[in-house]
């Protein structure tokens, strides 16, 4: 399979050195993301696009390649093509007829030709000749440039002809690794996940920072969605997941801060902690999912007071977004189901929260706060590479595993819906239900408590994590299914 990868249009207007650097980075990212599917994949760069060639022919692997490229920052779209040496017009016609002839009978069609290089003919000359001959030879109903049923697409580059089979859109933006790094504050909800995606899409590498206010289930949920975002959109780069234990910080706020200022001060403590971690990682910008006036702490006066505690640039990609637009984006990028099932921990609920907090009053409220508690939280922060975060979380968890399901037991396939659909788990005589891992904690209580359930995933890590959590919640009827 051969692909022509078209880069994000804004890259093409950069200066020559910047443009070449971005395209080299994109080529490097493509190789990194596809390496496990085809170690011999070839990616060559030219001025305004990249050419990718793989000898892999298995449809399942080719589909996975297409899906990964469709989620890669820096790519506008890519074309699946067949390449030939450029011949005369009759040779071009023959190649087009070979690929499109059967599809044109009785159809309205058009011919589109793009050309680069020096030739004694124009793109329009090719379109006119090939179009008229295809109409005569293939029994087409007619030609329409405005509303064709079939579009015959070709590209001519110097002495090469490309016949285009299909086009796949990607997400645009700049290649990850071509711009600076950021630290994304993650709660796992709609806002922070969409903010993380938008930052990554723009080419900014984002490490993830989670402030744990007291819930193991919430931490697990945020780890899962952070890993999902990275795996789908950013796996060309290695980033960290930082988990900061904030229970003691929250307790100090609840005990010493006026109720109306708790929300603003909690955000200030988070920004202080995030800034310290960013310093450690040599990062100059923080990212949050805040949108103006969505909640009381996100008014302009409050955001101004919150930002006073850091010299870091605070990026808020959603600042002017409507909530429904954020939700729609979350659905589009695949994080909405995570957000809907994310365990919530409402650490601070003010009765009459200030919407226009004064800096002096906030600083007065903070005087009683023991900053040693914040320092202790930072000392106990865990920094784990995102690609190992789920594995490390499950290392010390011990739950009963079975290699064979017995009659009457129900296997729950907790893999991502895409994986379960592509490779369904089927066992003769055993009932198999699908329940995505991000929905297990919320939906398990709906199941018949008199039945025995076996959780299943590919590696056994996610199933152990969720089985352990369910057992700790009092569900004694759960085990892990690990077929030998």
Automatic annotation (TrEMBL):
What does the record give as its pathway? Answer: Cofactor biosynthesis; thiamine diphosphate biosynthesis
Cellular component (GO) terms are: cytosol
- InterPro entries from the entry? Rhodanese-like_dom (IPR001763), Rhodanese-like_dom_sf (IPR036873), Rossmann-like_a/b/a_fold (IPR014729), ThiI_AANH (IPR020536), ThiI_fer (IPR054173), ThiI_N (IPR049961), THII_Thiazole_biosynth_dom (IPR026340), THUMP_dom (IPR004114)
Q: Which reaction does it catalyse?
A: [ThiI sulfur-carrier protein]-S-sulfanyl-L-cysteine + a uridine in tRNA + 2 reduced [2Fe-2S]-[ferredoxin] + ATP + H(+) = [ThiI sulfur-carrier protein]-L-cysteine + a 4-thiouridine in tRNA + 2 oxidized [2Fe-2S]-[ferredoxin] + AMP + diphosphate; [ThiS sulfur-carrier protein]-C-terminal Gly-Gly-AMP + S-sulfanyl-L-cysteinyl-[cysteine desulfurase] + AH2 = [ThiS sulfur-carrier protein]-C-terminal-Gly-aminoethanethioate + L-cysteinyl-[cysteine desulfurase] + A + AMP + 2 H(+)
Keywords, alphabetical: ATP-binding, Cytoplasm, Disulfide bond, Nucleotide-binding, Redox-active center, RNA-binding, Thiamine biosynthesis, Transferase, tRNA-binding
Q: Where does ATP bind?
A: 185-186, 267, 289, 298
The protein's superkingdom reads Bacteria
Protein known as: tRNA sulfurtransferase
Q: Where in the cell is it found?
A: Cytoplasm
Instruction: List its EC numbers.
Output: 2.8.1.4
């Amino acid at each position: 399979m051969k692909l022509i990868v078209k880069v994000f249009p804004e890259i093409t207007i950069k200066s020559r050195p910047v443009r070449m650097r971005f395209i080299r980075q994109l080529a490097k990212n493509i190789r990194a993301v596809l390496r496990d599917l085809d170690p011999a994949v070839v990616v060559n760069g030219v001025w305004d696009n990249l050419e990718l060639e793989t000898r892999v022919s298995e449809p399942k692997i080719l589909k996975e390649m297409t899906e990964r490229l469709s989620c890669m920052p820096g790519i506008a779209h890519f074309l699946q093509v067949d390449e030939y040496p450029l011949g005369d017009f009759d040779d071009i016609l023959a190649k087009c007829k070979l690929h499109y002839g059967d599809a044109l009978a009785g159809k309205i069609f058009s011919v589109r030709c793009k050309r680069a290089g020096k030739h004694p003919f124009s793109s329009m000359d090719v379109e006119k000749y090939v179009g008229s001959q295809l109409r005569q030879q293939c029994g087409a109903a007619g030609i329409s440039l405005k509303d064709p049923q079939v579009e015959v697409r070709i590209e001519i580059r110097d002495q090469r002809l490309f016949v285009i089979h299909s086009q796949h859109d990607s997400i645009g933006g700049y290649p990850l690794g071509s711009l600076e790094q950021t630290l994304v504050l993650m709660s796992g909800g709609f806002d922070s996940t969409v903010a993380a995606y938008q930052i990554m899409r723009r080419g900014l590498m984002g490490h993830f920072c989670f402030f744990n206010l007291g819930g193991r289930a919430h931490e697990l949920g945020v780890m899962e969605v952070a890993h999902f975002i990275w795996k789908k959109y950013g796996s060309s780069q290695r980033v960290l997941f930082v988990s900061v234990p904030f229970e003691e910080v929250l307790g100090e706020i609840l005990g010493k801060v006026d109720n109306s200022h708790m929300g603003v001060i909690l955000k200030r403590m988070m920004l202080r902690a995030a800034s310290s971690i960013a310093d450690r990682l040599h990062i100059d910008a923080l990212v949050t999912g805040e949108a103006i006036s969505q909640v009381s702490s996100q008014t302009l006066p409050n955001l101004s007071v919150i930002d006073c505690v850091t010299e870091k640039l605070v990026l808020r990609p959603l600042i002017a977004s409507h909530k429904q637009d954020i939700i729609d984006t979350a659905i589009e990028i695949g994080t909405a189901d995570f957000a809907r099932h994310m365990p919530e921990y409402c650490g601070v609920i003010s009765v009459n929260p200030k919407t226009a907090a004064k800096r002096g009053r906030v600083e007065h409220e903070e005087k009683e706060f023991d900053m040693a508690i914040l320092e202790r939280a930072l000392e106990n922060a865990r920094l784990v590479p995102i690609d190992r975060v789920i594995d490390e979380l499950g290392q010390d968890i011990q739950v009963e595993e079975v290699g064979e399901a017995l009659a009457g037991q129900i296997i729950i396939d907790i893999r991502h819906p895409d994986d379960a659909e592509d490779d369904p788990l089927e066992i003769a005589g055993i009932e198999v239900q699908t329940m995505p891992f991000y929905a297990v904690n919320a939906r398990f209580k709906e199941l018949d408590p008199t039945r025995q359930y076996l959780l299943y995933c590919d590696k056994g890590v996610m199933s152990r994590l969720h089985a352990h959590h369910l057992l700790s919640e009092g569900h004694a009827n759960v085990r892990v299914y690990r077929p030998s």
